[in-house]
Write a structure and sequence with these properties.
Largest sheet: none
Radius of gyration: 25 Å
Oligomer: single chain
Length: 62
């Protein structure tokens, strides 16, 4: 199989055989990922801040 056949068959498969999602579904998925990422980042930030405060308090004891 040469490169030309590979490219032509790949293009044909992407155009005719792949079921692409609707744009509205992609938008909803993107918003969901953004919101979940923000919640996860806030959670990690709060845990990090708490850990930093605990470690500062612990080291101040000595």
């Amino acid at each position: 199989m040469n490169l030309k056949n590979f490219v032509l068959e790949s293009y044909d498969e992407m155009k005719n055989k792949v079921t692409w999602p609707k744009f509205s579904f992609l938008q909803n998925s993107a918003v969901l990922v953004l919101v979940a990422s923000m919640i996860f980042a806030l959670f990690i930030g709060v845990v990090d801040l708490g850990f930093e405060n605990i470690m500062t308090w612990f080291y101040d004891l000595f």
